[in-house]
Amino acid sequence: MNPRKEATYRMLSLIAAVIFVLPCVFLVFPIFDINPDDLWQMDSLMEFICAYKNTAILAMQGLHKTVFAKAPAMGKI
């Protein structure tokens, strides 16, 4: 393969990986702005748990829809 093409593909792969990971980084970094004394208060901890519960629910729904949309195409249903 042409070295220039290979370098271009690697750069595009790196950019795609960064774009894929960026939402996770933005989700984790606000944790570091919380004062440790405030983290143990019930209000902020409950908000934190609620936010991650909602994220988990959305992820499970997305997985569920993906699996059931793909299953007929694969002849499993």
- Strand fraction band? under 5%
Could you estimate the helical fraction of the residues in percent?
over 70%
Order of helices and strands: HHH
Radius of gyration: 20 Å
Walk me through this protein's architecture.
This protein has helices at 3-32, 36-39, 42-74. The radius of gyration is 20 Å and the shape is flat. 87% of the residues lie in helices and 0% in strands. The chain contains three helices and no strands. By secondary structure, the protein is an all-alpha fold.
Features:
mainly alpha, 3 helices, 77 residues
Overview in brief:
The chain is mostly helical. It has three helices and no strands.
Record the SSE blueprint:
Blueprint: H1 3-32, H2 36-39, H3 42-74
